[in-house]
């Protein structure tokens, strides 16, 4: 009899973390590695936000807080939702956790029973299906293909919903594709959801402020106010504020759901880091003048990578509307061989051979539920991206 829980048989370790760990191991061995796996800005946390954390330490704000966030942060979150999304929430409708991942996990743990289904567009963030499985639910996938710019259609959503559907888990702009749903596109999806009152909406808006060109972000409860009472809107400070290591995520939704999520958190981690909470107050309430120049830099990097990848025969890379990822298709490379004789049978083989031969670490598409593709995070320096793309070009050119 195994000592370990059988629940673990339902899930797998995070592939993105696995890629990052392998890249670090190879680098420690002296290999020249360029890691494009982690979804983490290479910018430092803005100085005024870091200063707020330092002030919290100096003021002795280092003790336990309320389980799901200090009052000041909840008030800042309410102000953010009103300012940015036109959504009105009271502090008792807000939950703060140790990163967006915990907030999502709490919501699923608090609501899912065996047999409950969660509809998830694919490609998806690698953790969504496994969190659903850990919570006892069943993920149901809708394939968002390259032909439709990695976006699902209303018809697909309608077909995926069943009497067992409890949540529609939605992410825009998307990790891993960077695809963003405009107002009309999202309205078409919310129209479907309005016909199915038993389905709740779990929207992951973590990349809200990372939007480029003419793309304007919108969120489901904003587009369709009638969904307000069955929507949990999740966000955080990790990406746009370059605060990944501070570990603060948050959500707002119906009070009974927030109360249930608090109960889960009270028996797992209890409160998020106090110092990080005070830094997040400053992030939300303070100046946002760093976001526009950071986004301009991300957009330039995006264009560099898209141009370089589309110059490769057999690779197709659409231009994403947001986030800091590209998700190129390698359909034209499947079946080819490396000079050493490795057959590129799938995107996992491609990613491993690319890392071994060139030192460029990417995440294979099967990890996100749609193949044959791979994900590049362009949240790194222009020089590293240019060199990585040159290596990818040489690797692909050598395939026969």
Automatic annotation (TrEMBL):
<dbReference type="InterPro" id="IPR050596">
    <property type="entry name" value="AspAT/PAT-like"/>
</dbReference>
<dbReference type="InterPro" id="IPR015424">
    <property type="entry name" value="PyrdxlP-dep_Trfase"/>
</dbReference>
<dbReference type="InterPro" id="IPR004839">
    <property type="entry name" value="Aminotransferase_I/II_large"/>
</dbReference>
<protein>
    <recommendedName>
        <fullName>Aminotransferase</fullName>
        <ecNumber>2.6.1.-</ecNumber>
    </recommendedName>
</protein>
<dbReference type="InterPro" id="IPR015422">
    <property type="entry name" value="PyrdxlP-dep_Trfase_small"/>
</dbReference>
<keyword id="KW-0663">Pyridoxal phosphate</keyword>
<feature type="domain" description="Aminotransferase class I/classII large">
    <location>
        <begin position="32"/>
        <end position="392"/>
    </location>
</feature>
<comment type="similarity">
    <text>Belongs to the class-I pyridoxal-phosphate-dependent aminotransferase family.</text>
</comment>
<keyword id="KW-0032">Aminotransferase</keyword>
<dbReference type="InterPro" id="IPR015421">
    <property type="entry name" value="PyrdxlP-dep_Trfase_major"/>
</dbReference>
<dbReference type="Pfam" id="PF00155">
    <property type="entry name" value="Aminotran_1_2"/>
</dbReference>
<keyword id="KW-0808">Transferase</keyword>
<dbReference type="GO" id="GO:0008483">
    <property type="term" value="F:transaminase activity"/>
</dbReference>
<dbReference type="InterPro" id="IPR004838">
    <property type="entry name" value="NHTrfase_class1_PyrdxlP-BS"/>
</dbReference>
């Amino acid at each position: 009899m195994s000592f370990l829980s059988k629940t673990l048989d339902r899930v797998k370790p995070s592939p993105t973390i696995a890629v990052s760990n392998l890249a670090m191991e190879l680098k420690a061995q002296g290999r020249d590695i360029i890691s494009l796996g982690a979804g983490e800005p290479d910018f430092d946390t803005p100085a005024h936000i870091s200063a707020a954390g330092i002030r919290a330490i100096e003021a002795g704000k280092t003790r336990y807080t309320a389980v799901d966030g200090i009052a000041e942060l909840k008030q800042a979150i309410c102000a953010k939702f009103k300012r940015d999304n036109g959504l009105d929430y009271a502090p008792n409708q807000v939950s703060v956790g140790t990163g967006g991942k915990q907030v999502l996990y709490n919501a699923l743990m608090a609501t899912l029973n065996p047999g409950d289904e969660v509809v998830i567009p694919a490609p998806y963030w690698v953790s969504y299906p496994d969190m659903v499985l850990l919570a006892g639910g069943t993920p149901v996938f809708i394939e968002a293909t390259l032909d439709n710019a990695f976006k699902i259609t209303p018809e697909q959503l309608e077909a995926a919903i069943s009497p067992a559907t409890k949540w529609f888990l939605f992410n825009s702009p998307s990790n891993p594709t960077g695809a963003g749903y405009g107002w009309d596109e999202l309205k078409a999806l919310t129209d479907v959801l309005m016909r199915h009152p038993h389905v709740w909406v779990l929207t992951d808006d973590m990349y809200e402020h990372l939007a480029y060109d003419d793309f304007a972000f919108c969120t489901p409860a904003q587009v369709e106010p009638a969904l307000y009472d069955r929507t949990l809107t999740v966000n955080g400070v990790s990406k746009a504020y370059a605060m990944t290591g501070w570990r603060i995520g948050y959500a707002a939704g119906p009070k009974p759901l927030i109360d249930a999520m608090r109960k889960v958190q009270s028996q797992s981690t209890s409160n998020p880091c106090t110092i990080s909470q005070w830094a997040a107050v400053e992030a939300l309430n303070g100046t946002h003048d760093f976001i526009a120049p950071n986004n301009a830099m991300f957009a330039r990097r995006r264009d560099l990578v898209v141009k370089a990848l589309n110059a490769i025969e057999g690779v197709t890379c659409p231009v994403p509307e947001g986030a800091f990822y590209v998700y190129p298709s390698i359909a034209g490379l499947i079946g080819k061989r490396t000079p050493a004789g490795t057959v590129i049978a799938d995107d996992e083989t491609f990613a491993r051979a690319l890392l071994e031969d060139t030192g460029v670490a990417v995440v294979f598409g099967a990890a996100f539920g749609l193949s044959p593709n791979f994900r590049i995070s362009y949240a790194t320096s222009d020089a590293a991206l240019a060199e990585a793309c040159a290596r990818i070009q040489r690797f692909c050119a050598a395939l026969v």
